[in-house]
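RETRY 2/3 - previous attempt timed out on the joint model. Re-submitting the same 897-residue input unchanged.
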Amino acid sequence: MRKLYPFPGGVHPPEHKSESNGRPIAQAPLLPRYVVPLRQHIGNPAKPVVKVGDRVLKGQMIGQPDGYVSTAVHAPTSGRVVAVAPQPVPHPSGIADLAIAIEADGEDRAIEYQPLLDWRSMDPSTLRNRIRDLGLAGLGGAVFPSYIKLNPKAAARIPTLILNGAECEPWITCDDRLMRERPHDILRGIAVMQALLHAEEVLVGIEDNKPEAMAAMQAAAEHCGFPLEVVAVPTQYPAGGGKQLTYLLTGKETPSGALSTDIGVQVFNIGTAYSLYRAIEFGEPVISRVVTVTGHVAEPQNIEVRIGTPIADLIRLAGGELAGASGRLIGGPMMGFDLRDDAAPVTKSVNCVIVKNPILFPPPPPPMPCIRCGECARACPALLQPFELYWYAKARDFGKAQGYQLFDCIECGCCSYVCPSHIPLVDYFRYGKSEIWAREREMQAAEQARKRHEFHLFREEREKQEKADKLAAKAAERLKQGAAAPATADPEAERKKAILQAAIERAQKAKANIQPRNVDNVPPDVQHEIAEIEARRARLREAAHAQDEDKA
Amino acid sequence: MTGSPYITQPRRETPRIMLLVLLALLPGIVAHWWLFGPGIWVSLLLCSLFAIGFESLALLMRNLPIGFYLRDNTALVTAWLLALSMPTLAPWWLYLVGVFFAIIVAKHLYGGMGQNLFNPAMVGFAVLILSFPVQMTQWPAPAALAAHVPSLTESFDLVFAGQGSLSIDAYTSATPLDSLKTQLRAGTAFDDIIGQAIFGHVGGTGGELVALMFLAGGLLLLALRLITWHIPVAFLGAMALTAGLIQLIEPGPQAGILFHWAAGGAMLGAFFIATDPVSAASTPRGKLIYAAGAGFLTVIIRVYGNLPDGVAFAILLMNIAAPLIDRYTQPRVFGHAGRKGKGSR
Ligand code: SF4
Ligand code: SF4
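RETRY 2/3 succeeded.
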């Protein structure tokens, strides 16, 4: 038995797994219309590469990665692009976002997939770029582009690879079903991760309320060809939090503000491993995923649907909402959010849709004053004092809230869950964070304004300088004409002259439309002085230039 | 519009917690009734009614929904703690004044529930003991020692109409804590004092059983996880340590550890008053420091002060320090440098 390191805090909400984990994963039929948002991952949204009217094939890239932290999106079926416009997306804000709507032609013709069966002999960076172009992102909910996480160069060494099969949120069972039904495929995906990261140990953490998944993964692990340990972790929310699972399995704390890779650990979700398997084995981009549809629906279950499936259709596939439904949640009840518009589609991050009713999800009781009972602090896995954070966030004293480490809050919801006064603590923390971000953006804007102003001053200075250069040129011209160049053998004078010459030439090359104004009236000695100064300046410039070249 | 989480832990609500605290007080109250007569019910009832009245008035003046806030039962907890700290069979206006200072001044003038710096019941108590020292030290004598135990109707009469036909000496006596101090100062030998009937076995006749029952109620609070172990353990521990030290350094015999635990408001203070989360320190280490301070001061005041008991003032003094203690005992946040592991929880 592996030694486990219990993480602090945590809660035990009713699990509600049995509603949906009894049926095998169902396959969704082809639907007439899909909506594929371009922002399905953390980072820059994909750039659309199709336009309205274009014919697309299944698996064709319709949005390309834009920048480093980005990944691609693909057409879920063959058909015609009918819209590239803001449309409802599953996001807490309910604000529409740019998405590509595709009308299916019913043929479901795919592009020619190029499997990556020879991935072991491929150049790692080529392989990673292929993974990026196949649109892989974490399917556990965070949707960070996978190709970046598979790059060990970012960190010195990643000896430990953790697969997150904890699935600690109530109601959600999509990873459970995947592990039960397709353990070998998941392990093939893990093998790629292990090889790319050169991980020495691979740990699959599964909450002990999923014995079937444990057994299936353990059986499959016996012939997977690399060291892999399937570890049962106690069922305690949020065991599936990245930092919590890392601590649970390794006893290592991810430092505040750092990534798990900084302590030699990389964490991937089970679903991500499965989609990596499909990418390698079939060359198939991420155009489908398993989603749990549960709660107040006729047939709660897991369904493998294409990315872009409108959530209204998804609910219909699970037998539809029952009478008295009171809304829909995306994700679990602890960290999910209310869906505003069921026209929004399934994206890579949608792992669960819960249809609410007033009995399962009663409206929140009215909050009472905080009695400082400390329940929230005892439940907080980040070891924060939520009631202090609440106090300061409510008073809009965000500096103090930050002092109490507001940004270490993982928004797991444990504090709100236990609060006997029903205070929506996490709402205050989200609000506090967004206010601080807004202020920081304002400060950055001010900083930029300051920089712009400084640049303006700099430009004025430069223009003055250019004027002076011209004066010098004029002055030098006169000197040449007047002095008739007496031959001096003095090498120092020669050098000065050469430099002067260089300065003159540079000045002549400079824009000539600014007329020197007062030079003509200056007495010759002053003119000479100007020339001398110019020469000195030129020398300095020369030296600096030479240095630059040395460096280059 | 509120966001996640969309579920709350069932069966843990502030009104319910307060109700459980009231329930946990019952064993002590019953013991009191058994030993000192039914007068305790009169003072509990009066304080409760006054508290509800003042609470409603305050909510009305602050324009808050009365029904919603009354439902939280905190005013009742304050009322009961005050009633249990005061002598029973005191004149009714004494309860009125005490509750007024507890509810109106200590609670609502500080911003209402959850915002008070001081424990409201202890503020009420402190005001009374400073303003009405005579009335506040006339405790009913234990039934076993009293010439007469007032019945329930007699108790009402006493509270509302004054002494009537009963002589005050017939049913009151000084408390063990008080008599010990006065007699020690008068030069009576310790063993002689302790041998008097009022001192019972360890903490005074009757007092020791009431203390035991409050201890039982406190253990119930612990078992229900309504309080943590930190405050009672540190409070009683510091009391024991201080009492032990005093025995060592002071010449002549002194009250022992058990006496201090069993006498006066020690158990009530350790489990029900010092643990009031609003006015106590709230970090694990902070609670230890806060309660140890209160326990220490309790004994010091009892031994060297002029007050009949030290619990109330010790707790009030530590209430002032609680915010500061919290500030300097913030636990290490996960992922920050410092002590590893789960922290002292
Ligand atoms: S759980 Fe609620 S009432 Fe208790 S301290 Fe935390 S915020 Fe306050
Ligand atoms: S939401 Fe934040 S403050 Fe609340 S328990 Fe989770 S980490 Fe702690």
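Residues 13-173 of chain B form one domain. Closing ticket.
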